[in-house]
Design a protein that fits this description.
seven-stranded mixed beta sheet; three-stranded antiparallel beta sheet; alpha/beta
Length: 381
Amino acid sequence: MKLIPYGRQSIEKDDIDAVIQTLKADFLTQGPKVREFEELFAEYVGSKYAVAVSNATAGLHISALAIGLKPGDRVITTPITFAASANCVRYAGGEVWFADIDPESYLLSFEKTKELIQSKPKGFFKGIIPVDFAGLPVNLEKFKELADEHDLWLIEDACHAPGGYFVDSQNKKQKCGNGNFADIGIFSFHPVKHIACGEGGMVTTNNEKIYKSLLSLRTHGITKDNMSENHGGWFYEMQELGFNYRLTDIQSSLGITQLAKNGEGVNRRNEIAKRYKSAFYKKIKFQSLPSNTYNAHHLFVVEVSNRKGLYDFLRAQNIFAQVHYIPVHTLPYYKKINYENADLSNAEKYYSHCISLPMFPTLTIEEQDFVIEQVLEFINE
């Protein structure tokens, strides 16, 4: 069997043709394809605004700044995520506090988050960054009620979940990143994600003030809005300290074609997940699916007693499974930040058993059957 990675981009002729067309056009960056991609993406998730950025980490960074995070502000997030979900708080000088995960969904636990908030005086925390881990949407309606009660903002890290949704209490489908509950949503266009641009990200919001701040911070804090007849076309103002976090037209043209295929891709990911679940039911633990929720399935995670053994065994069979993630609070940098002892036992137990199996739309039935066969063979030894 050829090498089977845990994730893989799918680049087809229409993607290549779109990039070539942009390479032959007038703008390679700061041109019309960026705006087109933003408008199409906002329409896809159902948000008012979308801002394309160089990568999702950049998006998280300027989101923290645009929402008003100040040095010393305390923000809650999950320990089971990529470090960027927490790092964006540190970039702005804030303090990161972790609440434990739900042991079945692997998402930030609503109950543990509520307990942590209620254990401190009102105003102690400023915001929450829930993560749609593995593609499973967080029920942001519940978190929004909690946030409003304690005057907190919400940034949804939806990097794993374009196309995922939950159904709210009014029986309305709420797509990840639509801005109806979270103030800001973040998406990633890394090659192993749903929409591959090489690198890249998108920030979505329904708040016009935040949107304008994101646009400024993305481009050095520079604007031409105040140009008058007394100034030539070269005139600009730098009004704040921003960054060069722009996405190119080349990447945007690829993003446009990739976005158009995401619905089909998410459907295929769910077909793959269904086959895994059928094969592993009552044999191997996997991520639960809460009712009225549609998982976009960036990952398919299982828990096994001998994770290192399975990892090595699969690699010997050319199956390159992966582990997502080392709990952020155990990383050396965060271990230095002794904000307070916390019970994150669910996250630590999860990490000791978790492994992500191959999950991408072009995974064939033959390849998946081989993966399933090898996993069960190891488990049953």
